[in-house]
Design brief:
Pfam families: DUF1059
Radius of gyration: 10 Å
Order of helices and strands: EEHHE
Strand order of the largest sheet: 2-1-3
Structural class: alpha+beta
Number of strands: 3
Distance between the termini: 8 Å
Oligomer: single chain
Helix content: 40-55%
Strand content: 15-25%
InterPro entries: DUF1059
Protein name: DUF1059 domain-containing protein
Length: 57
């Protein structure tokens, strides 16, 4: 399982995105960023966010 903590992306937010693949995490994170934070995830931003995705222990 892959995880991304919204806080790691620089937001004051406790949300955690979990999915089976990096691509699924990015898709969910982009939706969350748009709906909750009003941020559109560009390809450049997605590339930076991808480095923040970790395998869940």
């Amino acid at each position: 399982m892959k995880t991304l903590h919204c806080r790691d992306a620089g937001f004051d937010c406790e949300a955690i995105v979990r999915a089976d693949t990096d691509e699924e995490v990015l898709a969910q994170a982009a939706q969350h960023a748009q709906q909750v934070h009003g941020v559109t995830v560009t390809p450049e931003l997605a590339a930076g966010i991808k480095s923040l995705i970790h395998d869940e222990a």
